[in-house]
Design goal:
heterodimer, A: about 350 residues, alpha/beta, Rossmann fold, Alpha-Beta Plaits, 6-stranded mixed sheet, B: about 270 residues, mainly alpha
Chain lengths: ~350, ~270
Amino acid sequence: MLVNAIEAKGLVKNYVTWDRRGFFKRKKRIVKALKGVSFNVIRGEVFGLLGPNGAGKTTTVKIITTLLLPDEGKATVMGYDVVSEAEKVREVIGVTLSVEKGFFWKLTGRENLKYFGMLRGLKGRELDRRVEEVLELVGLKELGASDKLYEEYSLGMKARLALARALLHDPPILILDEPTIGLDPMSARTIRELLVKLAREEDKTVLITTHNMFEAELICDHVAIINDGRIVAYGTIGELKRRAADRLAVEMIIAAPHTILGDLEARISKLIGIRELGLEPLEEGRARLRIVVKPGEEEVIIAKSIEAFYSNGIKVYQVRVHEPTLEDVFILLTKGSK
Amino acid sequence: MPSTSIDIIRASVFSTYAWLKNNKWLFFSMLIWPYLMTFLILALGMVYGSLETYRERLGISNPVLYILASSGIVMSSLMIVDVVATSALYHRWLGTLPYLLLTPTKTYKVLILEPVPSAILSSTMSMLAILPGAVFFEGLLGAGKLFLILLVVYLGMLPLIGLSVIIASLTLVLREETNIASFLTPLILLLSGVFYPIQVLPTILQGMSRIFPTLYVVQAAKLTATYTIPEIKALLGLISALIILTLIYNGTASLALGTSERMVKKSGVI
């Protein structure tokens, strides 16, 4: 029996793009999207392909799902080659590329699923049964949305329908490109719980791409971090966190209007002499300051920061020190990317 | 389980049915379109001349039925070109194209077969819409003629599908987001001799009209609308022309689609 459901070895992909500088004038540009991507996805696990925007996640997914030809390298899904045995690969995968579109607007959820089920060779009672099963599984039946037109769906419903389509022909492998992007917390949680359930109870292999570290930490057994077309880290969440074990994260919630954040970040950095920090705007004129420090340094840094804030009239609401999260590892490994 | 051609056709028929069911006004407008077109042409024609003159110039016995049938034919042709040629683009806009291409079968099969049932259904409907008119003017004989015209329309579809697939391939490869096929609509209307004889066109346009299958379909329709029994020899000539065009267009289309599939999957347009 195959141990790996998906194997990618040395995938290389270059795109030709054109910079348009006028009506006729344009300049050719080669974008190196993948520079030798290799990873394995073990059967029955939830695997996360993480990376910042433009890192190569979607290109990798498109190659694995046979929608794109690699320039170099090889990828197999359940032992089938994605180039020479593309049709076999398509039989064993369920795919979601975008949760926002990909259905007929003037058809209901149920009709859309029937259409895609027919394309997959399902027919008669089996088709009806599977459509009902997946509508129930993703919760669209419970929401009373099965017979609503797709154009009337909320983003959360669209995401559920996209997952339902991926599950329709009961494939052993699910490949989902950012399945929770843009969803409200409740919908995102429902999708995440469902993915874990499918992997644990139905032995499905799930590959998701995301840049939501919280999500990856919550559901993934293994993750690979891709940056600038290369895999820069691979392992379990615990293994990756150990890569940042010599670090601690200090988090402060401060009162800072959003307009001064850029300036403030530079000032704090200069004042406390630390480069690895970030300011994230929050609601109600607050911001979250995050400083990565070495163990033992935290007390001095906190004291210096608070002093600096108060001398500038900035209130500090909350201070918290914690172990490195996957996000810290991600930032550490993808630092400097665009 | 691999998908068969029948699976793709069934899915396409189902989506077309569901689409029409959920868009009843569109369905209704498709049915009355030939009548509106006939009314417009007749009304414009009456400004410049009489029905008698039109009858004499075109050599037809019933101008109203002729225009009605011609409107049906031209609408069928436009629909085939529109549906098949813009199918890939339409699916790209909807975001359904990747999921079509994920069907476990040869990609070219999906791209050709998926739009065809919709094209056939739409053109059959626009021809059947004329049925009440045909029965009103000529009784059962009118219905029989219409059936004959429908067969010729189906034959005319074969080269039109090939032509449309070539346009679809171009649209994908050139990464155009606009409908390249739309330039064909006025050309088909102009060159097919639907509402006037092509002899009134300049020689160069008359030559161009011979590469459009619609011309032969319209001429065949004219034969069936003019005479009680169509002249078999003339009809065979027109059918031969359609078969030759089918071979040329579909042969080119199969080459174009294979090439464009490779180019699209290499360039990552999808």
